[in-house]
User: Fold these one by one.
Assistant:
Number 1:
Amino acid sequence: MNVVLSAIIPTYNQARFLPESIGSVLAQSLEEVEAIVVNDGSNDDTAAVLAEYQDHPKARVIHQDNRGTAAARNIAIAAAQGHYIAMLDGDDRWDPRKAEKQVGFMEAHPEIDLSYSWCREVDVDGKPNGIFHCAGEMRPSFDSFFLSNFTHTTSVVMFRRALVDELGGFKASLPIASDHEMWLRIAARRENNVACLGEVLTDYRIWTGQKSYDWRRMLNGWNAMMAELKSLYPGPYARLETKARALNRKHLAFNAMRSGDDEGARQCLAEALTASPRTVFSNRGWLTMAAIATSALPGGLSGQLLRLVAHRRKKNWCTT
């Protein structure tokens, strides 16, 4: 089979979601697609689940000791045969036409090195919760990516295989934010080489065991990435770091709140406001920030604000 697209799926202790994730790749309308799954030292039933795909003609399974997501992605890319590489986390899933539409877009736009789609949230059982994540910029700049990784999840991203060989893969020294750092290296190659498809083609699963709920771990990863960016791009770093830090802490405040860590959410919000109050209040999400700020007060005001936030997020088709 002439493989056009290789879907790389790093996984760690996501056995219960893997059949959906892998199945969504194998069911793509574009037939020239392969799934490459790397079991990154899981200690649940991942090995048993992957045994079902060991002899599948369109799936490849690799087992390794736990080395982190970035290393697992690099292993998968090294084994990939496709002209394009697409990302998929082991707990997410694709729309059946994602590969066809995104490959078609990149074939029609040779100037684009990286593309990504919109996504919607689903719960632990795979049911949509009414929340969508839709990036506002269709042709984001390097500066935009420096400020925020607004692809939201790696599972929406596709790029050209030749580009990975040129850039040397994901940096295993950045186990958390290696994807964000990679998107920046791609965006730095030339102007207008990143594009968004204005269509929801990925389901992003929300569950208590996912890494994004661990806001402290995400914070450490972001700090490590910024230290790397300071040496790689000193000019943009000096110009954008303060605003980027405010946006990062604002995002982490929301994640901490969703995980039930109100104190952590207030800490992140305070750091965001210290970095740049204007940035915090000039972007969407002020109601959420108000709910976090009032979470320590009696009277149920915070809960009322959160219910209003939930109503507005489900009422508006796109949220960020």
Number 2:
Amino acid sequence: MPSSTSSSEPRAIFYSKLLVGISALLIVLFEFLSGYLLKHHSETYDRVSHQYAEAVKMRPATPGQPTSVLMVGNSLLLEGVDVNRLKELTSGQMHICPIFLEATGYYDWFYALQRLFREGARPQLVVLGVGVNSFLANSVREDYVPLMLFDMRDSLGVASALKMDRTATSNLLLAHSSVFWDTRTVLRTQIFRHAIPHYRELILLLKPQPSIPPPEQFQTIANSRLERLRELCESHGAKLVILVPPTPSSVDAVRQMTMAARRARVDTLVPIDPAALSVKYYQSDELHLNPEGAKLFTTALATFLPRSVDHEQAASPN
């Protein structure tokens, strides 16, 4: 009489293979759909991918041509700088290429700049503007950044620098390799944004800006990061400028950042004193500039940024 155990084994193997096949098919389907939605319906992906491609092609200006300027930052610049107006006001002195991605900070841009330089970008001036809080944060954006700004080496470098555990490191590497894994949080956020009124303001309330550390700790963190950024840029022929966009609570932070930059031999640019802007120039979140505030900031930036270019040209024999 045949054993029931032996007869059930082929059936179990068949169903196991079927389950694996269905899972693999779903993974491919999710990856395909995620890639399609990202490339055809994501304004962020469209903007950043085009900006990145333009930045890679940047080369030093020939004599008599406008200085090539790479400007990178987060939503404080995305909302606060009218790029078209800035280009118009400075067209005779600078060729500006921006890359703005929300919720980014020091670690995002340090490793993104490393990759840009490896891929051949050669701007003469690098302007970084993320705000003091984001510059001091010990974090990296886990969507869009691993996929669009990092390669595998950068992802491993960030994981090591932030001392991520194996789970966090695996998530970062998967986000670099898989569109679905990278954008799963973005998709969830979009669903919540359409389903919950004032979702953005609610998130800002639940996740307030981190407090500024005590002066001694501030200087230690800022000095180290500024020096690494300066050395990275100088090793590829670029000058670093830290742009400090205004926020309502950044008056003391601006002073401390300026002191730290001076010690690290990095120029800081503060086009507008935060204390000079009233709340009427900010959006309802009381963090980002509104169109009226952005107009003031852009005009001031167009006035002061060329001076950094003139100073660099005067200091360089080339």
Number 3:
Amino acid sequence: MKITPRSLLAALLLLTGLHAQAQQPARLELCVACHGPQGNSQNPQIPSLAGQPRIFVENQLVLIREGLRDIPTMKGVLDGLSDPDLIALAQYFAAQKPAPMPGAVDAARYQRGKELAAQSLCGSCHLPTYQGREQVPRLAGQQEAFLREVMLEYRDKPGPGRDTVMTNALRGFNDDQLDDMAHFLAHFGKQP
């Protein structure tokens, strides 16, 4: 068999692809099936994991695996994964670039949400850019419907695996205010 530059390049690409595939975290294909390519969700009800702080993702994966956070669609997905497996998944998603949220910005809702987020001091924990840090999630560019649902759950149904600080922070907000905040956070940084 004669080795040509083309066949050498093809072999190199094949080996590189196999090596990259071997380096992917366990069950990554199941994660991206719901959370989207590189963790950028295409489903309004499912959070994007791209760019989330690594420690936040690690903690959530452990809580879900151990049954301390009840997410019916996640039941069984993490069964049998070791702590190093969960760490590898968290590292992967933390390293991915969040995609901008599609859709038009409603200027009035954006402004109301911005004012409510400032009034609630959301930027104190989630940072002024709402990118999150350590054990605090990224809110900027997250799915709007997901954000609203999570805020409703924190406000109305605190439970295991949920931060009580968030329950207190959202107390007193009505549904329309949560809608506005979710709109602002989902489109944070866009010009209304």
Number 4:
Amino acid sequence: MPGSSRRALLRKMGLMAGAVALKPRVGGLARPRSANRRDMDCLRERIQGVHCFMVTPFHPDGSFNAEGLRRNIAHHADAGIQDTTIVVGGGMGEIFSLDLKEHRAMAAAAAQGARGKLPVVVGACGGYRMARIMARNAQEAGADAILLFAPPYWNWIPGYDEGTIRYFTEVAQSIDIGVVLATVSGHNFPTGTEKYWPKVLKRLSELPNVLGFEDSSSDIAMGQELGDLVSDRLVWIARGEGHALKALPAGARGNTSAVATFVPQACREFCKQGRLGEVERMQEILRTRIQPMARVRGLSPGYHVSGIKVALEALGRAGGPVRPPGRAVRPEDRPRIAAIAREHAEA
């Protein structure tokens, strides 16, 4: 073997051995590195603002459209949108209809579309092992964080807070990317002298890669109960613009939005004004720039996902059908949704 070829072979073998050494395996999975607190602090700053919940596009036959999702996200990344986090596989993303292979492909498409220009958060949910696999999918795809949904069944029952804490902790510790916790309604169930979710979140804030929480309570009591944690440690994210009207002036640092995919600048300004406490300005932006676009979801009950997809198609982006139990848009409503999208979506 010529000397140059031999050196190339040895160099390749050395790189392969180094890669194996960097990823010791435990139980068939690569052991994650410890979350770097400085990196997490930077990421905590980056995810403040609008959390744009993306739908998951499907082909006409119902199969996952990875390229469509990549292009939909690249549309935002290439536009130079600021103070926006891309969220895939959330409730809007039909995560409960995806298999693990599709989930992995979704995470990869999202990271490829964002190209590091926007933070990417990938949903993880289901039973304990399922959530751990989804968390690993997100990390290996290059996502910045996961949106970790509360465990099914047990999260709202008094006395099960320790189990919920263990669930969140073990999933969070299985990865070295960030974790945003998705709480659910039921935070008023007491555990001892503290309310359920504030107690859980206070404990979980000790984990270095737990960045914040999505609050679905529609109130500000949870954020107030957490006190300085929501300014010093946890990013409080209000769910939807209606909740944000109350929560942003009270200390929340961001809000989720279904229509930020169409009116990102309006949603960004709405969030900015909320953090400044300018409620009247928030209401004006909501009334004149956000709610007109949100009509694509409200023409008929059940259009909250399918209406978004039809509007995306009207603008030349990827949408497609919804999977059960999602409700499809009626043929007679499609032109109406398309007209709303063309009139009110930002260029």
